[in-house]
Amino acid sequence: MVPLSYYLVLSGFLFACGVAGFLIKRNIITIFMSIELMLNGVNLSFVAFAAHWHALAGQIFVFFVMVVAAAESAVGLAIIIAVYRTRETLNVDQVNLLKL
Amino acid sequence: MTSSLNLWLIPVLPLAGAAINGFLGKKSSRTAVSVIGLFFSGAAFAWALSVVMRVSSDALPYHEYIAHWIRFGSAGLPGSFSSDFALYLDQLSLVMLLIVTGVGFLIHIYSVGYMWDDPSYYRFFAYLNLFKFFMLTLVLANNYLLMFIGWEGVGLASYLLIGFWFTKDSAASAGKKAFIVNRIGDFGFLIALFLIIQHFGSLDFTKVFAQVQPLAAETAGAGLLTAIGILLMVGACGKSAQIPLYVWLPDAMEGPTPVSALIHAATMVTAGVYMVSRSHMIFERAPMALMVVAVIGTLTALFAATIGIVQTDIKKVLAYSTVSQLGYMFMACGVGAFSAGIFHLMTHAFFKGLLFLAAGSVIHAVGGEQDMRKMGGLRSYIPITAATMGIATLAIAGIFPFAGFWSKDEILWKAYQANWVYWFIGLVTAFVTSFYMFRLLFMTFAGDYRGGAHADEHGRGTHGHDHGHGEPHESPMVMLVPLMILAVLSVVGGLVGIGNGFEHFLAPVFGSGEVAGAAGEAASRGTEILLMVVSVTVALLGAMLAYVLYVSKPYLPQKIADGLNGFYTAVLNKYYIDELYAKLFVKPLIDGSTSILWQGVDRKIIDDTVNNAADGARQVSDEVRHMQSGNLRSYAGWIAAGSAVVLAYMIWMGVR
Questions:
Q1: H or E element, residue B366
Q2: How far is CA B24 from the centre of its chain?
Q3: For testing the chain A interface, which of B623, B632, B643 should be mutated: the one with the most A CBs within 10 Å?
Q4: What is the pLDDT of residues A19-32, one digit of tens each?
Q5: CB count, 10 Å around CB of B118?
Q6: What is the 3-state secondary structure (H, E, C) of B464-503?
Q7: High-pLDDT (> 90) share of chain B, %
Q8: Which residues contact B466 (CB under 8 A, 6 or more apart)?
Q9: In whole angstroms, what is the distance from residue B10 CA to residue B22 CA?
Q10: What confidence tier does B60 reach under pLDDT thresholds 50, 70, 90?
Q11: Cβ atoms of B307 and B439 closer than 8 Å
């Protein structure tokens, strides 16, 4: 039986990787993948807690997160394609119209 | 008293008239407006008469409760206070009631003729009815607070009516002046009310006076009652145009003449006398306050009368005369002869109302001219006006047996009993009064007509005459009938005073001590008659002097004026009182307001606070907006940093 803390450490590590990637990377696709990484980090902790406390709620949450993440990916990828078509770049530093 | 008198109808009827005319009058015809205005004010008069018929003297004082108004604390306990909409009728308010509704109704009738050509005809009647509502509230109130409502209300109506022709600058500022000067008086009145609340816990006349009655007179020194009395007198000074607050009344002549007659002669300005008489219980126990009243009254009487001598505007003469006669009334109150004061108030309402209405008729006749130097010889053009004005002049001069004779001699007699100085000044005033009134009469009606054919340009602006003005012409009957009725009253109005009849009538209000004292002095009846003879002689002398100066030797006045060079100029300029007030009070106020309140407080503190706050917000924003880089990764960084801070905080504080 693997102790709970192992799962949590791994979950925290995955999440931290996601945050770091999100902050460092410039390519939208990579940033997008970092988001998925963070989500999965969280999912892992959900599942770990669910197993530990013998509560199903955590697993249900994970399904929700996965469904929402799938929907988000679909919309997000569509936006990325649209951005690429208009700007011909995937570098987020060049997609900065939203400033004063 | 089983059946209710329904006193509340009396003030409410004119209010209804005011509301109907005020809200709907603009679109109605003049006839409709007149009918509404006359109906409601006439109905108030009729109802007042019916009250007189139905009420028996032993049922007075009569209380009528209408609705509750201000109540807090449980009744009877200390710290509680209540004041209701409730009316109070006794002999004093009965007299006032009849004067206000009766003379008011006559002046309403007169106004139909006088104001017919005015474009704001409906507005005039709305205001006039509104005034009556407030005046009747003042007179019928059973507590000081409701009285104060009426008091302020008549001030408002007075302001509206003085400034009735508000497009004229002088009228607008005269209205403001009246309002502001009255506020000064009201301030004193209010403080008096606060003192009464604090010490007697009520403002109901009956409750307050019941508590005042057992108190001893403050002969030794000034105390609470003296303070209340003097403060009440300050209020009365404002409303009744006494020194030092009389300055607004002469300016108030900018209003239409019926307004001058109703508000600034017959009714509103006498509110102060009424209020002082109503509070006689307080004044009688405060000799010092009474003395203040007497001195102010006496001085005002003489002072205003002397200014009246040199005025050339027919209405200004009457205005100063009103101030002077009000001084008489206060003199009477001041020597404790309240019933004499009220008696003079009544006769004054008749003859001064008549004088103003007649003056209005004269002004109407000569097409808006008010300068007496451009009149003269009008007797043959407007005989009825001339006759009625002559009667009023005889009445105000105090010639036997006209109304003014009875009331004025009553006052002089009481004043003589109190202190011969009051009597002497009163006598001098009577002489001056007679002189300037006959001067007015002679300048207006005797000699030859000095006005040109077209004196209209100078006129009162909106009193548009579309008919030609070659000749002075008599006024229409609708104006003459009130003149005649008032003339009759000016003749016979004083007769109720014979044998102290009026005094006996008012005795339940003012206490019978006054009457008993007078009865006990049957021995001094000789003195009284002697005084009467003296005052009539003096009045006749004044009239004769006026005749000599203005009819037989019209070149003399100029000579005398030249002889008295400096003094004449001073009197002509009303003793420079207006200028003095302007220097002493108005200018410092304006300067202070400009430099401290406007430039200092308003611009430096208030405006700058707001502007600096706005500037500061902008500067901070200028710095902060750089956060909005549009760079996705920097946003993400901020979010991550923010979450980190929140997390750190939660860990640090141990929040779970």
A1: none
A2: 28
A3: B632
A4: 999 888 889 899 99
A5: 20
A6: CCCCCCCCCCCCCHHHHHHHHHHHHHHHHHHHHHHHHHHH
A7: 46
A8: B117
A9: 19
A10: confident
A11: no
pLDDT value of position B462: 43
| Domains assigned to chain A | 4-94 (1.10.287.3510)
* Tokens read off for B61: 């004082």
For residues B239 and A97, what is the distance between their CA atoms, to the nearest angstrom?
73
By three-state DSSP, how is residue B64 classified?
A: strand
Q: Which of A23, A97, A99 sits opposite B633 (nearest CB)?
A: A23
- pLDDT tens digit sequence for B337-372: 898 999 999 999 999 999 999 999 999 888 888 888
| Other CB atoms within 10 A of residue A92 CB | 19
A48 touching chain B per CB within 8 A: no
Instruction: Kindly determine whether residue A96 and residue B628, on different chains, have CB atoms separated by under 8 Å.
Output: no
Task: Tell me the H-state helices in B163-270.
Answer: 169-200, 205-212, 224-239, 248-251, 257-261
Angle, CA of B576, B581 and B583, to the nearest 5°: 95
Lookup: tokens for B461: 């602006």
Residue B351 near residue B306 (C-beta atoms within 8 A): no
Token look-up 């109907």 returns B20
* Residue among A27, A89, A93 with most chain B CBs within 10 A, to mutate: A93
Cross-chain Cβ contact A31/B625 below 8 Å: no
**Per mean pLDDT, which range of B349-353, B511-515, B548-552 is the poorest?**
B511-515
Q: Is the peptide bond before B476 cis (omega within 30 degrees of 0)?
A: no
Which residues of chain A neighbour B631 with C-beta distances below 8 Å?
92-93, 96, 99
Chain B residues touching residue A99 (CB < 8 angstroms): 628-631
CB B628 within 8 A of CB A99: yes
**What six digits make up the tokens of B137?**
């509230």
Separation between Cα atoms, residue B536 and residue A68, nearest integer Å: 112
Amino acid, single-letter form, for residue B542: G
Chain A positions in Cβ-Cβ contact with residue B637 (cut-off 8 Å)? 23
Name the residue type at position B20: I
